[in-house]
């Protein structure tokens, strides 16, 4: 018997709402009775919560339960594809992207704008983001769905406690109060607005949408102009104590190597980032006539067995292997997922990468390491940003439930 | 009301025993009533558990409660200094150590034997360990205390699920079923026998016995002949997915550098391990006449401002700084604790280490990094091994409680 007062009851209700919604999310097509059996809640409590979720558009009651066995069948519950959507935005170095993702994880809208690489002032960048959020909100309205919150991925160090962007060297931005600024400029003030590091969100996207439910421990490498990592351990992101972890782009793979914009020398990003690979391969980073980022050109040369292109990419695989050996020696993780640009380059950089892992990881003799390309590629961060909002709704649906609790 | 059967009751009792004992451990001098108030258990349940803990010798009832305020005073409970002790053993590269630690964390016995570095066969090593455990058990009996279990620290990769030592390159041991072998050779079959990596256990010792209760996030560097790290996040060890993490000795700080026994090149251990530092300083690693490990000689030279010694140690600080910058860029942790040999060298290697952190850690501009010497030094691993047993008793005292539960 719950003896606590209103505050306690409220906490219990929030907990129960999340439990019921997550149960429906995990096993599509359960009846109210099956949800009660799985959660240990009474049928009356589950029915009341489910009714409120249906009214709020989070859940649909879609027909006979998909259940085997005897007894009267209930009706089958599932997450509503027309419920609140997560709106993800990614501020890339040379792109600006957004995605609308429904509660089931399906991507409804996915836009990418090519923008002038670098040189954007903070003012211009924030203004572009606000405009894109406005466009996406209009598109959501056209689709007849609401936006449950906005997640923003940035290629920089975000203080997790404040949403302050401390530093994004590849944008040239420092100490930007992104959370506050974007709240003001987008008008999103009554729903969550979340700001996070793009490599961390790409790692979460790989966890949520990568199609591998058995894969709970991996490091996802985002290889773009910058290089970052999202470390996922036991199905949870490990972002470091203050949120500044995963900066593998600045692991020193050649301490006496070329200077890096971060102040260090021989950082991975400087030797194996997209700009370094394109330069080594002799591919112009910004092709004449605009359009594309040089990657299509590089991939064409690789398929044509161009010697300079092959050397550039196998060298990148070697540097990446040295860095990933450090990561695995430090945190002992069984799987490396190659994301972003690296997902497309994987066939050519795989062998040198594996050779360095094999040589340098002290446990490689008996603890095998899998290297796999991401299926999401360069879309991972923006989907992770949108998914972060969706995950927030599933984990705390109470603010979205209308009508009095009964 | 607890409606569950015997299994459920047993689980609840184990949970409650641990809760009560940990409460007594955390705040010395509480009364039974105060323990009841802090845990939310009834006074009757607490009294019954405490009586069994007193009978079992885990707790003593030591006089009036240290409490401020009105009302009748209870009597003050505390962990018994004569309760079961943890016996820790460390198999070092050139030492064999043991320690007996009581429930309060006090070190009662601390022995170190110098042994022939390397070249011990597995058979010889295990036999020495068994003899030392026997000696320590006899000493415990002489002190009138029981041994609650044995923890063993080894300088190698231990599979956490099995207690199998996969590889200890500095001992030259591979695939030794340490857990099974030591159970058989020591006769410790009815109490816990735990096997773990020395750097991980040194990190835990720093957490438990380092005298800094506010320090919950740090990386502890064990600088001995090998170099390892124990990563502590939110007051818990992060040993990697399979227990093979923390191998910072094999971070590549100079990928084209000298070959390492692990198969890699330019590993930290090869450039900044004890042997490398002594060699660079011109100190014989094994002084003629035996005794000592060359460290006393090195420290003397440093105090005398010997140029070669100073260069050797400042260079080691630089390599260590490059490696620790990688660690912090990857896992974002605010404090580096220098342990083992490095604790003694800290005054001389501090400045080059800090310079590399400052230059290479991308968040160093606003997220300061503290570098501190360990107070435990080279005793950390063996104390951690003993503390592991003690922690196990505090977290699950039920097997030590005698008499029928009432």
UniProtKB/TrEMBL annotation, chains A, B:
<keyword id="KW-0418">Kinase</keyword>
<dbReference type="Pfam" id="PF12802">
    <property type="entry name" value="MarR_2"/>
</dbReference>
<dbReference type="InterPro" id="IPR043129">
    <property type="entry name" value="ATPase_NBD"/>
</dbReference>
<protein>
    <submittedName>
        <fullName>Sugar kinase of the NBD/HSP70 family, may containing an N-terminal HTH domain</fullName>
    </submittedName>
</protein>
<feature type="domain" description="HTH marR-type">
    <location>
        <begin position="18"/>
        <end position="60"/>
    </location>
</feature>
<dbReference type="InterPro" id="IPR036388">
    <property type="entry name" value="WH-like_DNA-bd_sf"/>
</dbReference>
<keyword id="KW-0808">Transferase</keyword>
<dbReference type="GO" id="GO:0016301">
    <property type="term" value="F:kinase activity"/>
</dbReference>
<comment type="similarity">
    <text>Belongs to the ROK (NagC/XylR) family.</text>
</comment>
<dbReference type="Pfam" id="PF00480">
    <property type="entry name" value="ROK"/>
</dbReference>
<dbReference type="InterPro" id="IPR000600">
    <property type="entry name" value="ROK"/>
</dbReference>
<dbReference type="InterPro" id="IPR000835">
    <property type="entry name" value="HTH_MarR-typ"/>
</dbReference>
<dbReference type="InterPro" id="IPR036390">
    <property type="entry name" value="WH_DNA-bd_sf"/>
</dbReference>
